[in-house]
Specification:
Blueprint: H1 36-51, E1 55-56, E2 61-62, H2 65-73, H3 86-97, H4 125-138, H5 143-152, H6 168-179, H7 182-194, H8 201-204, H9 219-224
Antiparallel strand pairs: 1-2
Length: about 220
Amino acid sequence: MFQFHLPNFSAWSLPTGTAIKLPKAAVHDIEERPEKRARTLKHLLKANHINHSVIYNELRFHNHTPHILGSAVCVSNTMYIYGADSDELNHIYDAESRHLEPWRDSPGEIAKHDWRDNLGKREYQRAYIDFFEDQLVQHGYDWQALLNEFLLQGKEPLINNLISGLGHPLIHLGYAQELSSRTVAIESLALAACFYNDWHVYLDDPKYTKPAPNPTDSLFTILDR
């Protein structure tokens, strides 16, 4: 029988209490920057949002256009130094658009009182986009406040299930924060809602989140267990 074991990291372990420091990701505010490339990226993200569904091919595939466009621009921590220019961004968008699909109407609308009733139903993707856009208006277009309400609030917040759908809701959320894009943020919420599954219980149910008997902040110790 095939077996797989993680390598032994004990030889690489850092001293107790030593943390691995990761640099904070730069935020590229494409909504406010005046450069042509920033404007192009902003408009292409909105064009993708308007014209193409976030889930396609019999509701199995994810629309990766925001990831590809965002990566093409944010290659370095210094905004646009090594990134794609406007023509290249348009070329990427055209190439990606060829296999995407237009939006289809959902079976019904979603409102504030029943928004959790259709979690996990991918056929409601258009309805969830419309719902979260309506809620954005209620928050005065403060998309961070929108994320705070629907990702972090309530008994079983969506943040506890962002790894569903092969982690695409989480990836989308990361690009929303890095690009400071409310358009991508709306899509991340819709993906989280549509791919909601039973995995959330491992964070929502206290019996799965008991304190570790031997807590550690060493990444290598955790991997070696």
